[in-house]
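Entry details:
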Amino acid sequence: MSDLNARLQDDYAILQGKQKTAAIRAASIRRLQRLLAPHLPTPCSRALDLGAGQGELVEALHQLGCAAATGVELSASQVELARAHGCKAVRQGDGLEALQAQADQSLDLIVCFDVFEHLTHAVCAAWFAEIQRALRPGGRLIGHVPNGLSPFCGSVYWGDLTHLWCPVPESIQVFCRASGLQWIGAYENIGASAGLKGRIRALAWRGVRTVLAAASTVETGRNTFRFPLSRTFLFAADR
């Protein structure tokens, strides 16, 4: 591992400028709640967040009723920031090792936001296999990745030096099928708030995506209106 790669692993939050004020972090937790709420399985108590960052997603899960949600994060600086904000449910560790430590069919939910694009295809396959093993029947994987279909994904994908590939829904489906997970769907994420500004953005995005989907349909000769075109997308799959 090069010196830069080692520093990116340990000091990721600092080098990538990921530090957040309490207000920005609180807004992030509220946004994650809106994003996750429609996709949670029932029941949803035993949850594991892989690549938990500074703990916002774990706290969002707690507030949504996933009382036993915990997280694991590789970067020491991210864990330190999580603890500085009072989140004690995130520990430092390797995601694959954390999965391997889970008993068979022991989890209701596994979430993995903005992590798969950092892993090689072989490592992704290993993660998906362990995710399938650790989820109970009817348990769910909810993931979030950059969207290679979006004309705006460059700032997300190329803005992080640790990214190795840029997923699209079809490539994530391959990992799901290979591991035995049942694909549910891919969903757009434009980060809109619940207020007036968010509603205006959502309405404007409908117009923008209609133009983008029409252009893609003309270029490819197939209907692409159903594909997510935001620069990142959420996906869900069941065991």
